[in-house]
Amino acid sequence: MSGTPILAAPGHMAVDYEERVDFDRLRGYRLARAKEALEASGCGAFLLFDFYNIRYTTQTWIGGALGDKMIRYALLTRDGAPMLWDFGSAVRHHKLYSNWLPDENCRPGFLGFRGAVSPGAGLMRDAVTEIKALLTEAGVADAPVGVDIVEPPFLFEMQRQGLTVVDAQQFMLDARVIKSRDEIMLLNQAAAMVDGVYQDISEALKPGVRENEIVALANRRLYELGSDQVEAVNAISGDRCNPHPHNFTDRIIRPGDQAFFDIIHSYNGYRTCYYRTFGVGWATPQQYDAYKQAREWMDRAISAIRPGVGTDEVARVLPKATDFGFENELAAFGLQFAHGLGLGLHERPIISRLNSFAEPIELRPGMVFAMETYCPAADGASAARIEEEVVLTEQGPVILTKFPAQELFVANKY
């Protein structure tokens, strides 16, 4: 990251007069990082089912309806391009448009829609036989095969055919943890899109509007702005704020409600996790106090983020679970923590009082993560929720999320 600026979010289009995202450079960086991880792992190959790992290595993607059905998989070896098995006509599309993959490396594959087709049909058996033949051809059939996630019948079939299976997910997450300049530009663009959506929400957030209407608004605007997947929009208001339910309903928003939202979407695969809290029309002293405390916790955590600092040191400045009404850190997990952002929503580092003391990770330039805080109000119903996306540079943290959050934003104030 030395000397690499954190560029302002560019326009969507490629142009001849500015250097923007270089997708060839992005693809080369990601594949090189994955191959370095494979080399360090001692495995002969990685067999990847996690659709973020598949995108990271093969630079391909198909819609979310099929992406999580465990039917796409990729084989990464130390030499040559990755091999991809994909769904039906998507293979022909890759051969036409994904020209960084040789045609012979794009093959049709289907394993059964997570058990909808019984393993007894032989699809998994045939797939493993094909994979083993390729490993034998590469001279690595006797070496361990790293697998990230897998259906039990597929794992059993690999073992039955004599393949030794080990965990590849740890190595792939390590590969993905340091973001390139292009990845950071895409993450910044994704955040800029949410900045605009929060402006729309602030204008629409009035009594009589329902939570699900805000969710619809956010979805529509994100897709209009160029999002390739709106994974989730949480909309929480009034007495639903405490405890945090992590979903939305058809609740009608009322004057004086505190309301918070989390917008999770991706632009060219790169995700946001971006909370903001609002007062609706007006706010009570208890709501202001809760927000002030959540902001103080946020600022304290961000001030601890520096290159070379351990995640345990950052976790130590976060409030304890008992400080905000929970019996232990497991019960409070996800309310005061940070998680890596990239192609996946929850990457490394994960920073919390639950895990970081036991296994600290050194923070390094190029890491990007979302820091979250939450504070229930003294009224027993309201709560404040803030989230900032942070990219770590050699000089320190840079905030990507720009919608105002230093003070409680009261929408359509009376």
Structure description:
It is built from twelve helices and 16 strands. The protein is an alpha+beta fold and 414 residues long. The chain has two domains: 154 residues, Creatinase/prolidase N-terminal domain (Creatine Amidinohydrolase, Chain A, domain 1, 3-Layer(aba) Sandwich); 231 residues, Creatinase/methionine aminopeptidase superfamily (Creatine Amidinohydrolase). The strands form three sheets. It has a six-stranded mixed beta sheet, with helices on both faces. Strands 7, 8, 9, 10 and 16 form a five-stranded mixed beta sheet that branches. α1 runs antiparallel to α7 and α8 crosses α9. The longest helix is centred in the middle third of the chain and has 24 residues. The mean pLDDT is 95.
Instruction: Strand order, main sheet: write it out.
Output: 4-3-2-1-5-6
In the CATH hierarchy, what is the architecture of the largest domain at level 2?
Alpha-Beta Complex
Helix share of residues?
A: 25-40%
Number of helices: 12
Uncertain stretches: none
CATH topology title of the largest domain: Creatine Amidinohydrolase
Order of helices and strands: HEHHEEHEHEHEHHHEEEEHHHEEEEEE
Instruction: Count all strands and give the number.
Output: 16
- Largest sheet at a glance? 6 strands, mixed
Number of domains: 2
Q: Taking all residues together, what is the mean pLDDT? A: 95
CATH superfamily of the largest domain: Creatinase/methionine aminopeptidase superfamily
What gap, in angstroms, lies between the N and C termini?
47 Å
Which descriptor suits the 3D outline?
Answer: globular
The CATH class designation of the largest domain is Alpha Beta
Which class of secondary structure composition applies to the elements? Answer: alpha+beta
